[in-house]
Amino acid sequence: MSGLDAWVTAAGRELGLDPAEVPTKAVLDVARDVAHGVLRPGAPVTAYMMGLAVGRGADAADVADRLSELALSWPGPTS
């Protein structure tokens, strides 16, 4: 188990979430796309927004795809 897997398991347990339901790769991919294509502080905020959308019933894979597409089409990193 990697350090990230251990953290997701512990944090999930703390929050009453099943770690198997956490789309870790999708969240990391979106965070990377936003951090590099938009701006670094946007990555955690976008991950939070992704969680809100999924918590309201959106499909995690669809949300991740849409946000990554938006970030990759962004005019460029802003300061």
Compute the gyration radius: what is it? 13 Å
Helix-residue proportion: 55-70%
Low-confidence stretches: none
Derived from helix and strand composition plus strand pairing, the structural class reads mainly alpha
Q: β content, as a range? A: under 5%
* Tally of strands: 0
Description of the molecule:
The chain has one domain. Helix content is 68%, strand content 0%. The N and C termini lie far apart (36 Å). It is mostly helical and 79 residues long. The protein has helices at 3-15, 24-37, 42-55, 60-72. The protein has 4 helices and no strands.
Quick recap:
With 79 residues, this protein is an all-alpha fold. Helices cover 68% and strands 0% of the residues.
Question: How are the SSEs ordered, and which strands pair?
Answer:
Layout: H1 3-15, H2 24-37, H3 42-55, H4 60-72
Features:
68% helix; single chain; mainly alpha; 79 residues
